[in-house]
């Protein structure tokens, strides 16, 4: 297991800068009053493909040597990693093969195809996915870019908090959602080196709280088929992300689905940005733990903005 | 009739800078491909009270002398001007009286009150509004700040396009929605002086096209009770805004309500910002007139972001 270093993250930032956006920070006097804290929202939903995952994906894609680049990249994902990897591969002009369950939403498949990704469908089971992926990789020779348990991906995600501390001084806390732990690991990598005084809080849906339970138990515990509105956060920790979580995260807070939906609506209304349920988990946990954050400067990573506008979670449609 | 000058606009910017946000520009590769143009969206929906109207309102409020300031300001409005004037008055700590029809949405009344504005309700008719407003003004001595036909307001709105041309070079077009004409007049004031090569296009709902018909006829024509989803654009031109529109606007383009709703959804999905139907009229007209804008650099003012998240126009709820 290779653990990415500060130098890897700094090299990643130089490598991906031409291909990603330096996303802005949004603030709201209203939200500051509501929480008694100073909140700084880093808007990764404003990346062109709508998610921070373009950072790790671009780092992997643009780090390939010419020979490997010809064969392209491959992954399995039904979410933002699939579209962000396709997007990065399109920018470099190399093939991207994605294995997706045939049951994945049509909109997700459309986005991958719009960016030139080639989809191979599998059954919605782990065995079918692994079997199909092994076949695709053998046929194409594409370099496997795991959605989060990959040092190149973690180094790429770490560039987000690097920008955040360049944009905002003296953060007491950084709060980001946790699923597989890619963003949180990148945040740990960067802040433990460049801003060790900033505490890192991971925010997780109560209904998919495997990272919370792992953190308390001291070893990885995987959920069995978790179900939450925050559908970007369903996957379990792996060895590399567990390394960062167990060594550098201060605490993991959880919030219920109704609390996540309420926080999401507050952000849409007062920050006036379109973002995903997963990205609302940090604010939901801050609203739930006011004493922790009162009077503090808090950086929050809005991880993504790809949401079905016809099915908003606060509307019964 | 006093016509505001470039110096008035420059003074306005110095006056209001501490109280407003220098809002960011958003771009989208996807929207550029879709239109064949380079589009730059100036996000006035990111002002704290959610609309560009905080510029004109702040210029009026912070320009009052001490004696008048004690008596505060007054207006009649059921929209963003009411909340933005209340917000500016709250920042200066002076009274703000607003006459609103009793039928105005509860959310709009709540926002005005949250900012400390005092509401006096009238019947939803012009005669009742004028009578009630005269009474309120006589009682309070509040300085009348018209929503748009006021040189201080127009000078304030002009600061938006001043920032836009500082943020984006070489614009071929600036496109903004037109209702009463406050934003368009401010844009004319600024660009005719500082960027005379930039053509100004006003964008108007077909179903409230009084400005379009006035522009073609050469004199002000008022609509009788227009009805459109773009509910910020229902009011007619007045003498001061007519002066700017008739002298400096290159053309007025219109779009239907379904076209406005489609453009709004495209912006939410691809720019990932929350904005009002009124602010989607410019993109709707650009999509409708591709040959005009192809290959051009186009600045678009996203005028506001106060929208009822429970009643989105593309959903039948």
Automatic annotation (TrEMBL), chains A, B:
<feature type="domain" description="Tryptophan synthase beta chain-like PALP">
    <location>
        <begin position="16"/>
        <end position="304"/>
    </location>
</feature>
<dbReference type="InterPro" id="IPR054856">
    <property type="entry name" value="BHydaspDhtse"/>
</dbReference>
<dbReference type="InterPro" id="IPR036052">
    <property type="entry name" value="TrpB-like_PALP_sf"/>
</dbReference>
<protein>
    <submittedName>
        <fullName>Serine/threonine dehydratase</fullName>
    </submittedName>
</protein>
<keyword id="KW-0663">Pyridoxal phosphate</keyword>
<dbReference type="Pfam" id="PF00291">
    <property type="entry name" value="PALP"/>
</dbReference>
<dbReference type="InterPro" id="IPR001926">
    <property type="entry name" value="TrpB-like_PALP"/>
</dbReference>
